[in-house]
Amino acid sequence: MFMFAKGTLLAGLSLLAAAASAQTSSLINSSTRGVAGSGSNTMISGFVVQAPAGQLRWLLIRGVGPTLGQFGVTGTLADPSLRVYDRNGTVIAANDNFATAPNLALLNTVTSAAGAFALGNASEAAVLIGLPAGSYTAQLGAGTGTATGAVLLETYEFGSVAASQASQTITGIAASIGDFSTLTTALRLTGLDAALASGGPFTVFAPTDAAFAKLPAATLNALVANPSQLADVLRYHVVSGQVLSTQLTNGQVAPSLLPGRSLSVTLAPGSVRINASNVAAADVRAVNGVIHVIDTVLVP
């Protein structure tokens, strides 16, 4: 039989209670100051998001340079640029100048609620994105040129958000849905993942994996071997501005991002067609536009 002194037992119970509390706690903010620039001088920070199935976590990620001057920091990076990657290396969010963020009003609200200091220079970089459970990487570098300077890379977690809300960028949504793995890879190969993560608003007619599988193997392999041609095919699936299904009209012609090429809309009872492709699901909202899922790749 083992005997414990009362004080020893209470101390042990306190340690167990502390351990249990630690398991249910979460990290609210992480901030790292250093020197960053372009290329090999890019600052890189990895983080892991924990969230139940069907839920996202709001992440406010900021790359701060000039504003650090108000805290006495000299030699700051004049134009920070921020990119967020998923575990597969796809850019799911990007920003160079935070004032251009498509969800700027909400970003500013969360910034204040999280207790973060206000960004005092339009050249700072920031993204607000809802992320499912997984591992991610934030990379902070120079927006233009080869300059280096002092920066602050910050990550804030701010509550949960329903997965159905418009909380991710277009590329973030594509990367998080299993039916778009081929599209996600194609965007990454052409560098268009960053464009659809930072600009907008856009309307994307997104082919599923099954849609890409309809292409002859020789055609798909030729596109993969020629990133410029693949990029043209992808641009043909994108329209500038946010166009919801309720805004589509029969016979409508919409200029795509591929210069000189347009998409035609055909409406019939119970169906919507974009060129020769059927819309399988409509109005998947993103923070910088909307996705309509289609069942056939559109080849210009």
Structural features, described:
By secondary structure, the chain is an alpha+beta fold. It folds into 2 domains: 29-162, Jelly Rolls; 178-294, FAS1 domain. It contains 8 helices and 15 strands. The protein has helices at 6-24, 104-113, 170-176, 181-190, 192-198, 209-213, 217-225, 227-235, and strands at residues 29-36, 43-49, 55-64, 80-86, 91-95, 125-131, 134-142, 149-162, 202-207, 238-240, 253-255, 262-268, 271-274, 277-286, 289-294. The radius of gyration is 23 Å and the shape is globular.
Index terms:
300 residues; alpha+beta; Jelly Rolls; FAS1 domain; 2 domains; 7-stranded mixed β-sheet; 4-stranded antiparallel β-sheet; 8 helices; 35% strand
Report a brief summary of the structure.
This protein is α+β, with helices and mostly antiparallel strands.
Q: Just name the CATH architecture of the largest domain.
A: Sandwich
| Average predicted local confidence, pLDDT | 88
Widest sheet: strand order?
Answer: 10-9-15-14-13-12-11
Tell me the fraction of residues in β-strands, as a range: 35-45%
Tell me the span between the first and last alpha carbons. 81 Å
The helix content, as a percent range, equals: 25-40%
Q: Which fold name corresponds to the CATH topology of the largest domain?
A: Jelly Rolls
> What number of domains?
2
The CATH class of the largest domain is Mainly Beta
Number of helices: 8
Question: Overall 3D geometry?
Answer: globular
Number of strands: 15
SSE blueprint and pairings:
Layout: H1 6-24, E1 29-36, E2 43-49, E3 55-64, E4 80-86, E5 91-95, H2 104-113, E6 125-131, E7 134-142, E8 149-162, H3 170-176, H4 181-190, H5 192-198, E9 202-207, H6 209-213, H7 217-225, H8 227-235, E10 238-240, E11 253-255, E12 262-268, E13 271-274, E14 277-286, E15 289-294
Parallel strand pairs: 9-15
Antiparallel strand pairs: 1-8, 2-7, 3-6, 3-8, 4-5, 4-7, 9-10, 11-12, 12-13, 13-14, 14-15
